[in-house]
């Protein structure tokens, strides 16, 4: 299976001028959305995790970007606001339409929306397929809040009943050592075996985005296409799900399962 993780920055583009307060986030998005849709389709992913998606504000001409990309791929999709129900952000123009989303080729068995106890953006989407659970997260910019969210995420991972992937923008400004305790506690490993910065896309210096996986998931390929449709690079991970040991022994070839 192929997983593509991408913080698309609401398809509003990139560049230094976009980091002035709110400036880039208010741009119209049609051109960048078309480019990102074509790029994602070219990568032929089975599962797509999208962060910073516009679900229908004025900048996307009231169109849901997740639904439009999913239609291009022929995928199912689920999405939810990044902010809790009682959050002020849910009631503000533009911000109220800011979501994260999953797109999926296969039928979705279940989807659950969890919210961390602390932070402005608190959403963790849980996507359950036939033989895997995937969490999509976008952690806080604040160091202490981010680590409180990692504690909540630990609880979600440890209660998963199937092999697990955690993918998202961890905002780990201090690099991969920020998540070492989380990896040790959960038993997950990073699909990226050596540090690879993903931000900013035009001159990557920080490793903010990660794909983490259970030991029973074998990574067959991992790479970051060097495209600048957003301020983050996309992450692409090809993987196989190993059968339980007892099941492998009962199979003459002891093969790996795919979907």
Cα distance spanning the termini: 7 Å
> Largest sheet, described in full?
6 strands, mixed
Percent of residues in helices comes to 10-25%
The tally of strands reads 12
Major β-sheet strand ordering: 3-4-2-1-12-11
Q: Helical region count?
A: 5
Counting helices, strands and paired strands, the structural category is alpha+beta
Polypeptide structure, described:
The chain is α+β, with helices and mostly antiparallel strands and 259 residues long. Helices cover 20% and strands 28% of the residues. The protein has 5 helices and 12 strands. It has helices at 30-43, 65-73, 143-158, 180-186, 245-250; strands at 2-7, 47-54, 76-81, 98-104, 110-115, 123-128, 133-138, 164-169, 189-190, 209-213, 217-223, 235-241. Strands 3-4-2-1-12-11 form a 6-stranded mixed sheet, covered by helices on one side. It is globular, with a radius of gyration of 18 Å. Mean pLDDT is 90; it is low at 251-259.
Name the features.
6-stranded mixed β-sheet; 12 strands; alpha+beta; 20% helix; 259 residues; disordered C terminus
Question: What is the gist of this entry?
Answer:
The protein has helices spanning 30-43, 65-73, 143-158, 180-186, 245-250, and strands spanning 2-7, 47-54, 76-81, 98-104, 110-115, 123-128, 133-138, 164-169, 189-190, 209-213, 217-223, 235-241. With 259 residues, the chain is α+β, with helices and mostly antiparallel strands.
């Amino acid at each position: 299976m192929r997983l593509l993780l991408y913080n698309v920055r609401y398809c509003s583009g990139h560049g230094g001028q976009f980091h002035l307060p709110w400036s880039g986030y208010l741009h119209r998005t049609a051109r960048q959305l078309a480019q990102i849709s074509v790029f994602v389709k070219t990568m032929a992913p089975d599962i797509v995790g999208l962060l910073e998606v516009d679900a229908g504000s004025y900048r996307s001409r009231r169109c849901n970007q997740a639904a439009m990309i999913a239609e291009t791929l022929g995928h199912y999709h689920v999405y939810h606001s990044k902010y809790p129900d009682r959050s002020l952000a849910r009631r503000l123009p533009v911000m109220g339409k800011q979501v994260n989303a999953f797109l999926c080729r296969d039928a979705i068995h279940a989807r659950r929306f969890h919210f961390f106890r602390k932070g402005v953006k608190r959403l963790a989407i849980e996507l359950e397929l036939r033989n895997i659970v995937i969490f999509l997260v976008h952690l806080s910019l604040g160091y202490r809040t981010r680590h409180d969210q990692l504690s909540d995420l630990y609880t979600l991972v440890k209660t998963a009943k199937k092999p697990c992937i955690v993918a998202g923008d961890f905002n780990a400004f201090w690099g991969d050592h920020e998540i070492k305790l989380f990896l040790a506690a959960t038993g997950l490993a990073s699909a990226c075996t050596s540090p690879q910065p993903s931000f900013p896309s035009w001159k990557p210096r920080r490793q903010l985005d990660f794909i983490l996986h259970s030991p029973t998931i074998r990574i067959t390929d991992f790479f970051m296409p060097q495209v600048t449709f957003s301020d983050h690079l996309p992450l692409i991970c090809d993987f196989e799900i190993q059968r339980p040991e007892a099941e492998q022994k009962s199979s003459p070839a002891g093969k790996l399962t795919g979907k």
